[in-house]
Write a structure and sequence with these properties.
Strand content: 15-25%
Oligomer: single chain
């Protein structure tokens, strides 16, 4: 092979025509003022659900255009129709209901508003409203790849209050029905045109931090049992998925108004995460010292597993030094081939409708920053 041909082949190998892309994003975006205002008006009874949806449609069209302008090849609807990244999806599963608990979820020095979910009947996926949400995104994506984000099945176990007697006494029945519901969901989104689906999961954070040990004990499981349970939940859900559907997972340590719930490296769950999940890619938080080092990546055995390094923070607006980001990508490439790596923000910009503490312009600058750095690294 000539030197020129070899160079061309290497260049092509570093480009990705399918997701996850070299420059990618997690999903949620800061809710715009028109959407925030309309949601308050709807809650007060001043506008109808149809009027709210039209305002959401208009704003989603605008932000899809803005995402494309940053150079991103992947677009989302910013989760503009949701109040929470997980509850809105889960409470629309059959057998699951939303409720208002006494207290919200505790983050670092701040607490969310009260919101919870409970399992009261047989879990299933039938007429879910987010199918229409995806279809709208798909219809306006144009030449970009639309990505649908939903919570991992682990989140129903992790955040759900199980009230159905038969599930309380038989966890295998709970997991069986949940996995079947997710299989239906994945197929339904695929039938709607989705070829890029992301599972979001904060449950793995219990293994990454000291405070997580108490949560593991509360589940009545050993750490090893819980790791196996989480892995089985995901693997059963994605089994038999269509060959041309990319399914990734974002492992999150919490993201609410620029703060977090957990800290610690991936070490305690690394072997399961990197060598035990039948996924196409993993979005990994690596934006600060809370995330630990890249050593756990040594457990990556599959050459086809794509790792998206969340080295650009979504928690504040200041742009990172590009050379620092490139240096960290180089560090990660000591454990995993550069061809298996990509770049993204470490999380979404608004996991809840409150959003992180930065401006919309800073948000777009962050996405452009990811695109520009990725162009330099994988050129």
């Amino acid at each position: 092979m000539s030197q020129q041909a070899a160079s061309t082949e290497q260049h092509q190998s570093l480009q990705r025509k399918k997701p996850p892309f070299r420059a990618d994003q997690v999903g949620s975006l800061l809710r715009s003022e028109p959407v925030k205002k309309a949601r308050l008006q709807k809650a007060a009874g001043d506008i109808t659900a149809e009027q709210l949806r039209q305002i959401e449609n208009d704003e989603i069209i605008r932000i899809v255009k803005k995402q494309k302008e940053t150079g991103m090849k992947v677009v989302t609807d910013g989760e503009f129709r949701r109040a929470w990244w997980h509850f809105d999806f889960l409470e629309n599963l059959d057998g699951v209901e939303g409720f208002k608990p006494e207290s919200g979820i505790q983050f670092h020095n701040v607490k969310t508003k009260p919101r919870g979910i409970k399992v009261t009947g047989d879990i299933d996926f039938t007429n879910h409203p987010m199918l229409e949400d995806y279809k709208f995104l798909h219809s306006i994506a144009g030449d970009a790849t639309p990505k649908m984000t939903i919570p991992s099945p682990n989140m129903l176990f992790f955040r759900g209050k199980v009230e159905k007697d038969s599930y309380q006494n038989d966890y295998e029945a709970f997991q069986h029905d949940l996995s079947l519901a997710y299989k239906k969901a994945i197929q339904a989104f695929y039938d709607a045109g989705c070829r890029y689906l992301q599972l979001d999961d904060t449950a793995w954070a219990v293994f990454l931090s000291e405070q997580g040990k108490k949560q593991i004990e509360a589940f009545g499981k050993t750490p090893d049992e819980l790791r196996q349970l989480f892995a089985k939940s995901i693997n059963d859900a994605v089994a038999d998925r269509p060959d041309d559907l990319t399914v990734t997972m974002h492992i999150c340590r919490g993201n609410f108004q620029s703060t977090w719930t957990a800290e610690g490296g991936y070490d305690a769950a690394a072997e399961t995460i990197f060598d035990g999940l039948n996924l196409d890619g993993l979005f990994l938080e690596y934006d600060d010292s809370r995330s630990g080092g890249f050593e756990p990546l040594r457990y990556v055995k599959r050459p086809d597993l794509q790792l998206v390094l969340g080295l650009v923070t979504s928690k504040y607006g200041e742009l990172e030094n590009p050379d620092d980001i490139k240096r960290r990508i180089e560090e990660a490439s000591r454990y995993v081939s550069l061809n298996q790596l990509s770049l993204s923000p470490q999380c979404g910009f608004a996991s809840t409708e409150e959003g992180n503490l930065l401006t919309e312009e800073q948000q777009w600058a962050k996405l452009r920053h990811v695109v520009e750095i990725a162009k330099d690294v994988w050129k």
